[in-house]
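Usage

Read records sequentially. Each one opens with the input sequence:
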Amino acid sequence: MRELPDDERPSPGLSAVVALIFYGLMLGAAWLLGVVWLELDLLVWSERAQVSLGLQVALGAGVGLLAVWASRQSEHYTSWGKTLSEEFARMLGPMTPGQIQVLALTSGVAEEIFFRGFLQQALSGFEWAGGAGIWVGLVASSVVFGLVHIGPDREKFLPWTWMALGVGAVFGLMYLYTGSVLAPIIAHITINYFNLTHISRQAARAQSEEPPPSQESR
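and closes with the structure output:
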């Protein structure tokens, strides 16, 4: 695949604006389908057991940091992990702290409200044979979550899709246990913030190591 020159790469600032629009539409869809149509509470699943706010925060942060650590380990010890990191750095480029915060916050909040607060809860509410609705909702929402995480090069980004499916299942289990989207949101934001920060630093380092144009043309 040809590497795009700097002037053809999408601007990180533009990417943040596109993210705000995209995730705003996702929240709108969750509200229309979940609240207006199905009359669901997208933040709290009242039929499930509730746990304390402190435990929800601790669980979300702990799972998020564990996933970040696992990402770093896969990058250091596997070829596919290293390839994923390099591809994301090439695709996203360096970002400012503000852009990273916007992307991490909007993706974490919107995706968890849509996939857990709306989709998982809605699918779990149907009358499935044998009372398996809860598990059908968990599996189906996790699979859809994984499928939307498909990169531009399916072969290189396939591990990312599988990881998203697995992480989506963990988020779904957290949602079942706590009865709230708070813990999955905190975990999601934590993962995206630290991974985007790492990717941005990689991209900046790669750009600083590139030879100047005058040397390339010789």
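Summary fields computed downstream for this record:
- Helices lie at 12-37, 53-77, 79-92, 97-124, 133-147, 154-178, 182-209, 213-216.
- The CA atoms of residues 122 and 136 lie 10 Å apart.
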